[in-house]
Amino acid sequence: MFTIEDNRIYMQDDMGKVVAEITFPETSEGVFEIDRTFVDESLRGQGMASKLVRAAVDEIKSRGGKVEATCSYAVKWLEKNERGTI
Predict the structure, then answer these.
(1) Whether pTM exceeds 0.85
(2) pLDDT per residue as tens digits for the range 8-52
(3) Is 22 exposed, middle or buried (0-12, 13-18, 19+ CB in 10 A)?
(4) What is the largest CA-CA distance in the chain?
(5) Residue spans per domain, the chain
(6) Is 26 exposed, middle or buried (0-12, 13-18, 19+ CB in 10 A)?
(7) Of 9, 33, 64, 70, which sees the most CB atoms within 10 A?
């Protein structure tokens, strides 16, 4: 479903167009900041943004990293779903 590439997770449609993406650059050693979440209109309302944030958090944690966020969606998602675990 998703492709993980460096500090980016994304999904493409059959034509190769990116239809969902989340980016999380390493801002300092071991600290990754979720700074962008994008979901194409064709996928909205299906929980795709939540799946992207979950995938990014899981990837960051698998690297032993700390999760931070400046993307407004990710900030709200983390407050709701990751209280006390980040």
Answers:
(1) yes
(2) 999 999 999 999 999 999 999 999 999 999 999 999 999 999 999
(3) buried
(4) 40
(5) 3-81
(6) middle
(7) 9
